Amino acid sequence: MDERRWEILGVPFDFGSECEGTGQAPEAIRAAGLSRLVEHLCSLGFEVADRGDIALPERVDRGCRPQGLEEMKVFAPALASRLGAMLFGGSTPIVLGGDHSITIASAAAVHGNLRAQGIDPPSVGVLWIDAHPDFETPGPHGTDALNAMPVTHLLGGDVGGLREIPALGSTIDPENLVFVGLRDVLPEERRAIRGLGIRAFSATDVDRIGIAEICREALARVSERTDAVILTFDIDVLDPTIAPGVDYPQPGGLSLREGMLIMEQIHALEKLALVELVEVNPTKDREGMTARSASRLLHRLIAGPVI
Ligand SMILES: [Mn+2]
Fold first, then answer.
1. Tens of pLDDT along 100-132?
2. 0.85 cut: is pTM over it?
3. 236 CA from centroid of ligand 1 (Å)
4. Which residue from 22, 132, 178, 272 has the highest number of Cβ atoms inside 10 Å of its Cβ?
5. Where are the domains of the chain?
6. CATH H superfamily, domain 5-303
């Protein structure tokens, strides 16, 4: 797949998070090595271009709930259209978040592009690499921030009327979604995952089964019955010893090697349409470790296996 064309887009959107800081991630990840690695990859003949950051909407109201909803209503169609143009041009976007609510727009872009090619209804697979399933529902019981509920939206749930926006109406079939690395799951999220029969590999499963086997099974599942695949990688899936700069650090996470293995496997996936790397928070980082881990993962994604 070395003929693949990659386009990096910074998405400094952190309105969907309880904490500020992930908006600084695109810049921090570039400075931590991504820009240098991209330059190096280009010199080796890989096609990869950094398109800078997309402009953000105005902050509407800090008090709106779920937090980030009003901003996302404006921002998601704009981001989806920008990513849609990259997809339509034949590129594979690499989205540098930002908080995890931006997947709402990425998924809309991939659905829209398949429709533009006459595939209707489109079927999209999602590989969700995260310590958290982000499957909360609006209301005061959880965090009530949009970055805790993108999966609820993707699976057809109502998150503050987002679904009524025409560009955001598509859904993912639960059988085409796979979680990897879960280790902080609310009881109601667990019930919902089991109820829908969603394939979910916990961090413990990574120990028990091994990341290589999990990757094989997960990639088969998200690509078998689908037209395109999205990889969304929340950096908090990694252990806090190598990725401390996140809003909800959870001990017992994946190693950098395990993250790299996922990226090498994804590199070879023909149906891969779009990749996201989200939730790096430079304001909570230690000496740029998390941003560096992120840039190394993206390097492996683009470069593929070492040998
Ligand atoms: Mn997470």
1. 999 999 999 999 999 999 999 999 999 999 999
2. yes
3. 5
4. 22
5. 5-303
6. Ureohydrolase domain (3.40.800.10)
